[in-house]
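Worked example 2:
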Amino acid sequence: WVMIAIVILTSMGIGIYSPLMWSMYADVADYHTEHFGTSATGLIFSSGTMSQKFGTAISGSLIALFLGWAGANMITDKMGNTMIDPASVTDSVLTMVWSLFSLFPAVIAFLLMVLAWKFPIRK
C-alpha cells in the first residue's frame, strides 16, 4: 500500500508537467504573433519537440556516463540489451542510481520551477 501511495503522489506531481509545458509553448506562440505580427506556431512547437528529443538523448548518455564514473560495468544480454553487470554493483553504484533517479531530478525540477515562476508572459 505504501508503494501505491508513493506512485500516486509522484504521478500527481509529474502529471502537471505535460499540460503546463504545452500551454507555455502556446503562450510563446501567441506572444510572438502579437509582438511580431506573424505566426510562428509550427516553428515554436517543433522546436520544443526537438529540444525534448535532444534532452532525452543527452540525459540517457549522462546516466551511462555517471554510472560508469561510479564504477558500474555494462554488459550485453542474449537479446542485445545493455545492462549493468550485477558483479559491479557496489555501494557507490547504488548511491549513483539513487541520485540519478531521485536527487538530481528533484534539484533540476526545483530550478525549473523557479525559472517557470519567472516566465514573463502575463496575459
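The chain has one domain: 2-117. The chain has a mean pLDDT of 87.
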